[in-house]
Amino acid sequence: MAEDEKERETRRERKHEEQSPENIKEILNVVSSEVPALVKNLLGSVFSEEAGRNMGKAAAAYYKEMKAGGLPEQVAVKLTEDYMRTFSSIGDMLRSGGKGDDIGKEVERKIREKMAEKGHGEEEEKDE
What is the DSSP string of 41-88? Predict the structure, then answer.
């Protein structure tokens, strides 16, 4: 029984350490610097010259398969247009949410609000 109690106490201490203002501040710093970079890289991978070439090749291969499968021209064209529209929609979604700095700041603000609600964020807010 004493071993179980020690283990529970160790877990409580770890949980308390993980929720310390210093650790939370460190997490916020990482999030605010990493999230914008992640979004920027995603946008770059979708809107690069190479991505454009790959989408063109994918659309051509898709169309070719539709025609080889015996679909009429109009249906193959329509399906290919829909296929490409999917890529465009994903790109639009990334672009509209792609303001990396804003996302990082918004995440940080939300986390600070939650910390303040729980009584953990006052020290950081005073330091700024």
Answer: HHHHHHHSHHHHHHHHHHHHHHHHHHHHTT--HHHHHHHHHHHHHHHH
